[in-house]
Design goal:
The complex is a heterodimer. Chain A is α/β, with parallel strands linked by helices. Chain A has two domains: 214 residues, Rossmann fold (3-Layer(aba) Sandwich), CATH 3.40.50.300; 82 residues, 2-Layer Sandwich (Alpha-Beta Plaits), CATH 3.30.70.100. Chain A has a six-stranded mixed beta sheet with strand order 6-7-8-3-9-10, with helices on both faces. In chain A, strands 2-1-4-5 form a four-stranded antiparallel beta sheet, with helices on one face. The longest helix of chain A has 14 residues. Helix content of chain B is 78%, strand content 0%. In chain B, helix 3 runs parallel beside helix 7 and helix 7 packs across helix 8. Chain B is mainly alpha-helical. The two termini of chain B are 22 Å apart. In chain B, 45% of the residues are buried. Chain B is elongated and about 70 Å long. Classes of the chains: A alpha/beta, B mainly alpha. The interface between A and B is medium-sized, with 28 and 25 residues.
Chain lengths: 309, 253
């Protein structure tokens, strides 16, 4: 499978601050890729390197097979980009800005007219004649997504595209991004886990300038769910929970709403041997013992730990 | 190239649709309409204000050259200072507002971005001043018995070369200095330095420094050789724009 984005050993240093530390990342062509990380993790810096706005301190960044450091207009003609806070010419209207953006790609005539009409509709801005200086943050964000699509890009890169949107606006943008699957590679950064869980097929997690995980979402969840065990006993759940806390292979226990015990384990094999023995030693009846389900949020919290900002 | 043309169109439309259309053309219009009248009636105004205090001092009757001198004086001071202040943010204002990012992630090179801005605004200044000069000429002809245009157009042409140089200098400073006020401050410093440099004859004769005082002398009817200062000013303006483009290409956004 070819890659829309290939990053190898990317490091970016600002003065004494390491914004990125030897980041490796590959984004398969045609995927909807979520780039997750807490605030300050380095997501925007990575996108700046991908678009050529910033220069890597070391490492290589390839976009659609081209080294970004050498990239010319031909590469930029194939990408669409939305920054985290898009800046617009405030004296323009939305149709004027889209026409201007299309003109920068060499679009004109009927093609440009049709594209502008479709994108205004997509952004919910049809008939809006207000100058951009009077737009709300949400309207600007929707226009930002629209302008990133004006050239029907092969690779769409979006920095926190839903952060300024209300729930309906968020749903519209996410549905639109999901509809591009298979035709356009969508790479978007966010700290909103539910957005990623909703539309992404693959995810990378960035923490303090390092990629701490990259995998298809289901694989990532499966990898981390193997560290959880849910136990239900006929009686004496409190006694068992207290006993589990002292075990060296247990990192945490919580009670489920159904009265069971969810155990986060450090060593699954040790858990499989010890749990039945602990229950038998106390004469408790075992109803259920199985691997726990985890959500992306739990995986994220586990990966970035308590050190996130 | 199509992206370049679209960006040039944007720059022109921006001039027409924003405050830019009011400031320089407004100044040119004001000075063109009032300068000749002020030149014609200055002696009478002085006599009315000073009364007997003038004593035996005789005021010469005004001529068309006084009107031209008034026009050039306004260009050399007020309009040039306005240029320096306005163009201190030529590039940096687009960086600060984030608009440069949306443009430069599309097929427009950073060099094209800077060159388009500099060229459009040089042309805008030239057109504004040409219209203002024609108006000044017409007003002068209406107020004075004769108004040969040669001194006016030559002096304004020399000043325009100086103004083009300053647009180039401000393009460079607006890439180097993130703050518009900071770039304008340095630009005014450059103006003072050029004025002082013109006092040294070789620089006054062969460098753009000669243009800081030459337009006023030409407008007063003196014959001043300005070919070298004009050529060197245009060459230096091109160097400044080229340097601005190169620095903008190498930097981060």
């Amino acid at each position: 499978m070819s890659h829309a984005i290939e990053i190898r050993g990317l490091t970016k240093v600002y003065g004494a601050k390491h914004a990125l530390r030897r980041v490796d990342l590959t984004v398969p062509e045609g995927s909807v890729f979520g780039f997750l990380g807490p605030n300050g993790a380095g997501k925007t810096t990575t996108l700046r390197m991908l678009t050529g706005l910033g220069r890597p301190t070391s490492g290589t960044v390839r976009v659609l097979g081209h080294d970004v450091a050498m990239a010319d207009n031909a590469v930029r003609a194939s990408i669409g980009y939305l920054p985290d806070v898009p800046g617009f010419y405030e004296w323009m209207t939305a149709p004027e800005f889209l026409r201007f953006a299309g003109g920068l790609f060499g679009l004109r005539g009927r093609t440009l007219d049709d594209r502008v009409t479709v994108l205004l509709d997509l952004a919910g801005l049809t008939g809006v004649r207000t100058r951009l200086g009077g737009f709300s943050r949400g309207m600007k964000q929707r226009l930002g997504v629209a302008q990133a699509l004006v050239n029907a890009p092969r690779l769409l890169m979006l920095d926190e595209p839903t952060s300024a949107l209300d729930p309906m606006g968020r749903k519209d943008v996410l549905d639109m991004l999901a509809s591009l699957r298979g035709r356009t590679t969508v790479f978007f950064s966010t700290h909103i886990l539910s957005d990623v869980e909703r539309i992404c097929d693959t995810v990378a997690v960035l923490d303090r300038g390092r990629v701490v995980a990259q995998a298809p979402i289901e694989e990532l969840k499966a990898r981390h769910s193997s560290r959880k065990v849910v136990i239900e006993v006929a009686s004496g759940a409190d006694e068992l929970a207290a006993a589990l806390v002292g075990e060296p292979w247990v990192s945490a226990t919580t009670r489920t709403p159904e009265g069971g015990i969810e155990v986060t384990v450090r060593d699954m094999e040790a858990a499989e041997r010890a749990v039945p023995a602990l229950i038998a030693a106390r004469g408790l009846g075992l109803h259920r013992m199985e691997a726990g389900e985890v959500g992306l949020e739990e995986v994220f919290v586990e990966l970035v730990g308590g050190g996130s900002q | 190239m199509r992206g370049f043309a679209a960006f040039v169109r944007k720059e022109i439309t921006e001039i027409v649709r924003t405050w830019r259309i009011l400031v320089l053309p407004g100044m040119a219009l004001l000075f063109a309409l009032t300068g000749p009248a002020l030149a014609k009636y200055t002696p009478e105004i002085l006599r009315a204000v000073a009364g007997d205090q003038l004593g035996n001092l005789k005021l010469l009757p005004p001529t068309y050259l006084d009107a031209y001198g008034q026009w050039i004086k306004n260009l050399s001071q007020i309009v040039l200072f306005a240029l320096v202040i306005i163009y201190g943010g030529l590039v940096s204002s687009e960086r600060k507002s984030g608009t440069a990012i949306l443009v430069l992630t599309k097929p427009v090179s950073r060099s094209a971005f800077v060159i388009a801005k500099a060229v459009v605004h040089m042309a805008f200044v030239a057109l504004t001043i040409a219209v203002g000069t024609a108006l000044t000429w017409g007003m002068t002809a209406a107020m004075f018995p004769s108004a040969p245009g040669s001194a006016l157009w030559k002096s304004t042409g020399a000043w325009l070369a100086f103004a083009v140089l300053f647009v180039g200098i401000m393009a460079l400073l607006s890439v180097l200095v993130p703050s518009q006020a900071g770039a304008a401050g340095i630009g005014l410093g450059v103006y003072v330095v050029l004025g002082l440099a013109s006092l040294w004859k070789p620089l006054g004769t062969y460098s753009p420094a000669g243009l800081s005082g030459a337009p006023a002398s030409i407008a007063a009817g003196h014959d001043v050789a300005v070919l070298w200062p004009i050529l060197s000013a245009i060459a230096l303006a091109a160097v400044c724009v080229g340097a601005a483009a190169a620095l903008f290409r190498r930097g981060e956004l």
